[in-house]
Amino acid sequence: MKDKNLHIIQKVIANIGRFLLAASFIFSGFVKAVDPLGFQYKIQDYLTAFGMASWFPSFFPLLGGIVLSAIEFFVGISLFFGTRRTLASSLALMLMIVMTPLTFYLALFDPVSDCGCFGDAWVLTNWETFGKNVILLLAAIEAFRYRTMLTRFISVKMEWLVSLYTLFFVFTLSFYCLDRLPVLDFRPYKIGKNIQEGMTMPEGAKPNVYESIFILEKNGEKKEFTLDNYPDSTWTFVDTRTILKEKGYEPAIHDFSMMDLNTGDDITQDVLTDMGYTFLLVAHRIEEADDSNIDLINEIYDYSVEHGYKFYCLTSSPEEQIELWKDKTGAEYPFCQMDDITLKTMVRSNPGLMLIKNGTILNKWSDEDIPDEYVLTDKLENLPLGQQKMVSDAHTVGYVFLWFIIPLLLVLGVDVLVVRRRERKFARRKLQEEALKAAEAQKLTDSAQELADNAQKPTDNAPMSVDNSNEMKP
C-alpha cells in the first residue's frame, strides 16, 4: 500500500511539472515564432554583450532563433500530449540546465536588459526570469525522472504524425511572419496606437535618470569618467555609453525623434500633429535594405506628391550610405535619421512602410506587401487603404489556434476511431485466440486423461484366461 501511494504521488508530481513546462514552452516558442526578426535582434544583443558577434556567420542569429523557437514549441506540444516522452523531457531538461545559470549571470551583471524568453509579449526582469527558470528546472527534473509516468493522449502509432505536423506548423508560421509581418504585434507601434500618446508622461511621474559614461585614453591607459569628473583635453575620447542610474516611469515610446537631413531640424512634432496622411518608409540600415520592390516605393512617393501627402524615409545609416541608395534606386524622397533600435521596433521589415495620420498608425506593410497602382486608384480619403486597418489580437490568436488544432483534432479522431479501435479489435482477437488455444489444450488434456483411465480397467470384450491345472493327463 505504501509503494502504491508513493507511485501515485510521483505520477501526480511528474504530470504537474509536465503541464507547467508545456505551457511555458508552447507560449515561449509561439511568441518567438510570430516575431522571428525580434528574436534575431535579441540573439544579436546576447552575442554582442558576450563579445561573440564575430564568431558566427551573419545568418546565424536569424536561423538559430527560428530553430530554437521551433524546438521550444515542439517540446511544449510533445509534453502536453505525452508524445515522444523521453525526447521531449530530455530536451526540456537540457534547455533548462543551460538557461538557468545563464539567466543567473544576466541577473547578476545585467549585460542585456531582458532575456527575451517571451519576446515582447511578456517582458520580465532578469531576476524574475531567473526565478521562473529555477521553478521550470525543478519541473524538468521531475518530468524527466518519471517520464514513463506521463499520461499519454496520443497513441504510440500516431505520435509521429503529431510531431511532424507540429514542426511543419511552427516553421511555416515563422517563415510567413518573416516574409510578411508578425501576425501579432506586441510592440508600442502596433496598428491603432497613437505615437504621441505613447510618448506622454503621466502628470507627476518621475522619469528615468541616466548617466553618461565616457571612456577616454591617455598614454595607453583607458579610464571611465562622468560629466562630474571629466578630465582635460590631454585625454583622447574612445567611446561612450549610457547607464540607468535611477529607475523611474518610462513611457512606451521614448526614443521617437525625426531629424530632417536636408534642414537639420527636428520635425517630430510637425509630423505627429499633421492632420493629413504621412507615409513613413522605414529602413533601419539602408545599405542592407531589400531593393527588389523599389519601383513600388517610388510609385507611392509619386502618388504622395500628386495628392499632397507627406513621405519620409527613416534610417539610422550615415549620409554616404543614403547617397549610395539614392544613386542605386533613383530615390527623390526626403530622408530623416532616427535611432536604429526604434526603427527595428516600428516595422519588422527592411524596408517597411507605415501610414500615419495625426500621429495614429493606420496601417503597416512589409516589403512584400507594399500597395501597388491597382490599389492606389484614388485619394486615400476615398479608399479603404486610408482607413485604419481593423486588428483584433483575440481573433488572430483564435485563427492561428484553429489552423493548428483542427488538423490535430483530425489526427485525434483518426487515432480514436481507427487506430485505437484496431488495437481493441486486435486485443479481442488475441484474447479469443488465447481462449481457443486454452480450450484446445484442455480438450487434449481431457482426451489424454480419458485414454489413461481406459488403459487401467478391463473391457467387456477382452478374452478370459483358462486354468488347465486340473485337467487329467493321459
Largest sheet: 6 strands, mixed
Annotation, overall tally of beta strands: 9
What share of residues is helical? 40-55%
* Percent in strands: 5-15%
Structurally, how many domains make up the residues? Answer: 3
Mean pLDDT: 86
Rg of Cα set: 37 Å
Question: Topology as H/E string?
Answer: HHHHHHHEEEEHEHEHEHEEH
Domain Methylamine utilisation protein MauE: 11-141
Protein name: DoxX family protein
Keywords: Membrane, Transmembrane, Transmembrane helix
Transmembrane segments: 12-31, 59-81, 88-109, 129-146, 158-176, 397-419
Could you outline the blueprint of secondary structure elements for this entry?
Blueprint: H1 2-33, H2 36-49, H3 60-81, H4 85-109, H5 126-145, H6 159-179, H7 195-198, E1 209-218, E2 221-225, E3 236-246, E4 259-260, H8 268-272, E5 277-282, H9 294-307, E6 310-315, H10 319-329, E7 335-337, H11 340-346, E8 352-357, E9 360-365, H12 393-455
Parallel strand pairs: 5-6, 6-7
Antiparallel strand pairs: 1-2, 1-3, 4-7, 5-8, 8-9
